[in-house]
Structures are given as C-alpha cells and as structure tokens.
Design a protein that fits this description.
Helices cover 76% and strands 0% of the residues. It is mainly α and 286 residues long. It has a domain of 95 residues. Helix 2 runs antiparallel to helix 3, helix 5 runs antiparallel to helix 6 and helix 5 packs antiparallel against helix 7. It is globular. This is Mitochondrial carrier protein. It holds the Pfam family Mito_carr.
Amino acid sequence: MGGGGNGESPNLLQVLFEGAIAGGAAGVVVETALYPIDTIKTRLQAAQGGNKIQWKGLYAGLAGNIVGVLPASAVFIGVYEPAKRKLLEMFPENLSAIAHLAAGAIGGAASSIIRVPTEVVKQRMQMSQFKTAPDAVRLIVAKEGIKGLYAGYGSFLLRDLPFDAIQFCIYEQLRIGYKLAAKRDLKDAENAIIGAFAGAITGALTTPLDVMKTRLMIQGPGNQYRGFIDCAQTILRDEGAGAFLKGIEPRVLWIGIGGSIFFGVLEKTKSILADRTNRRDAKLKL
C-alpha cells in the first residue's frame, strides 16, 4: 500500500478496520513463534556484571502477552494505515519517506497505551518475578500503583517511536523501489524478505535504547534508576559502553525473523481482505 494503487480508494474507516485485523493477526503470529528468543534477549539485557541467565521458562508470560499484543498490534496498524494514506496525499511523491516515518511514529504513539503495560508484565514474567499475568498486574498495581504498569514509559517511547518510524520507513521505501524496478506487485516471499531486512537493521540500531528500556521496566519498586538519563549514566559507569549492546544478537535475530513474519502476514491478510471487499463490491454493482 506504500506506493498507492489503481482503482477507487477505500475510505479511511475501511482502511483502519482492515489494518486493525491484519495488524492483530501479524502481531500474534510473531509473538507466538519467536517468544523464546525475546525472553533470552530480555534476560541478557537484565543481567548485570557477570550474572548468568536462566534458560528455563522461555515461554513465561506468553499467554498474557498475546492478550495485550493482539489489541496493540491492531491499534498500531489500524492507525498507521489511514495516517500513511493521509500523509502520502499531503507530501509530494519524492518526500514519501517523511510520510512513512511520521505514520510509523503516530502508530507507535497510539498503541503505546496498550503496549507499555503489556511489555512491563511480559518482561517481569520473563524474569520470573510473577507466575501469571493476572497476578503480575494485581501485584504491580498493589505495590507500585497504576504507574507501575507504565514503568519505563518514557524510555519505551524513546526506543519505539524511532524504531517504528525507521522500520516502517525502510520497509515501505524498499517496497516502492522494488516494485518500480520489477514493474509488478511483490510476491509474499519478497514482502517477507524486505520485512526481515528492515527489522534486522532497525533492531541493531535501537539496541542501546532497548537495553535501557528493559532495565527501567524490570526494576520494580526499588527504583535502582531515577530515570532514562540516570539509567544510561549508571550502565556506562558500572558496566561500560559494551553493556548497551547486550542482547543485540537475539534482538536482531528476533526482529529480523519477526519482521519477515509480521510483514509477510500483514500484506497477505491485507490482500485477502482487499479481495473480499472487491468481490463484495462487485456483487453489489450487479
């Protein structure tokens, strides 16, 4: 959808609805398939000094995470698609990258209200702090208040808004370039490969921000770090600059494979929904 299309454009409400379904489906498939890699990444980032990581319970928190990921992914794509469409109308074609960057950031901001509590609960469970998601929510709120569910919110936005903007911009721009060169629509495998490339690059670039977000989210009521800047200074002082790249290998692997699955499922679902809409419209015209 990045480069526009032929024929009559669907209205924004339909774009939002179809985007929400496609985004929800893609998000759930990725989380289910790659959750153990994410757990390993979280534990690597959380380990301080020479502490060893646990290899048990790599699926800890998956069910509760999916409950949050489904609406969060639906909100993200449901906002991203119509925002992208509107911004592409506002910007000249040679500035489409700005439209994609902005739409990615807007989608990320909208979904962060759901994504942050989901991420907090998930990471605390990955660190074996709680046994079930309902227990995690109840105890976090009891000990830290509602704000406990939004621990690291600022660092999450600092990581995820650039991440969402860069990943979707790279993906959309590569698709536009590929379609122009190939002079045809992309195949499912090609969308998946472009998604993997966009995810891996973005994952590597944003790893330092991800390390700080992880530390802030899992610290609990003890508040080892006073905020984003204090977290960065403490990590640098106590563990050195190399600590900012903790978990980069599983993160790049996870987001690269995740990008392949997410964008592959996303485009396939969008295609199925568009075909269904076209068939329904054709019947109505008869």
